[in-house]
Each structure stands twice: as C-alpha cells, then as structure tokens.
Amino acid sequence: MPLPLPLSLLLLGLAVLVAIVLGAGIVPGRRRDAQHRLAQEREARHQIARKAAASVPKAPVREIDLSQSDVISIRGEIDRCIAQERWEEGSKWAMHAIQTQPNQPDFQLKLAEIHCRAGQQREFRALFNELAARLPVTDPRRRKLFALARAVMSDPGATPRP
C-alpha cells in the first residue's frame, strides 16, 4: 500500500535533512585537509626559496680606495653600485661624497635611493626627513624623493626600480 502524500513528503524531507547534516560534517573536514595541504605546499616552496637564496654566493664587497675619487666619477660609481645591487659599496661612495660636499643634496638623494632599494627603512626615513625639509617644493629632486617614499610605503618589502 502506498504511503499517503504528506507522509512521503515528510520522509523525503527527513532524508534530505540527514544528507545535509552528514554532508556538512564531511565538507569542512575536506576543506580543512585542503587548507592544510596548501599550507604545507606553501611552506615547502618557502623552504626551497630560502635554500636557493642561501646557496647563491654573495658577490664580495670590494675595498674602495676613496682617496682616488677625483679620478672616478663618484656619481657614476654610485649608479653602477645601485644597478648591480651592491648596497654597502654604494653607501660608502655616497657617504664619501656627502663628506666631501655636504651642501650637495644630490648625493644624499642617492644615499636615500640606496637605503630605499636595500630595504633599510629606518635609514631611508631619517634621510627623507632631512631632505624633505631642505629641498624646495619645486625642486625635481624632491619629487624623486617623494616617489621613493611612496614606493617604500606602498610595499615595504619591494625594491623599487627606476
């Protein structure tokens, strides 16, 4: 004998409810497993990247004879250091230039650029404050300084390119 319509609808609803309840217990478990696998894969990729970065030999920092700076264009040497990401050497050249020409903000701007690209935020901010106070509003060097500051603020880990 067939079941009356309301009873069959009730049983059908109950079956759907049981399926939903059982399914709800399975899906979060699968989601958790998938998230766990993704986290493990991400960590494995980071470990591989760290090992690869550690295995790349660092270019030796060559000693600079700053007494010969009149023979070499200091600005050109600083630019080469920036292009080759030799931050420490570029900083030495810029500091030497700042000591010999303390009233020339170009070399302080170059040093700020080195700090920005090397990710040395504290040093960059100190130079930024000093240069922003010294440079006139209409000076193009001030615009470059603020462009570097925007790059640092937008992505502190990034190394901005010219």
Overview of this structure, please?
- The protein is an all-alpha fold and 162 residues long.
- The protein folds into 2 domains: 7-54; 73-154.
- 73% of the residues lie in helices and 0% in strands.
- It has 6 helices and no strands.
- The protein has helices at residues 5-55, 74-83, 87-100, 105-118, 121-134, 140-154.
- The radius of gyration is 31 Å and the shape is elongated.
- Mean pLDDT is 76; it is low at 158-162.
Task: Characterize this entry briefly.
The chain is mostly helical. Helices cover 73% and strands 0% of the residues. The chain folds into two domains: 7-54; 73-154.
Shape assignment: elongated
The proportion of residues in beta strands is under 5%
Radius of gyration equals 31 Å
Residue-averaged pLDDT:
76
Tally of individual helices: 6
Count of β-strands: 0
Low-confidence stretches: 158-162
Q: What is the count of distinct domains?
A: 2
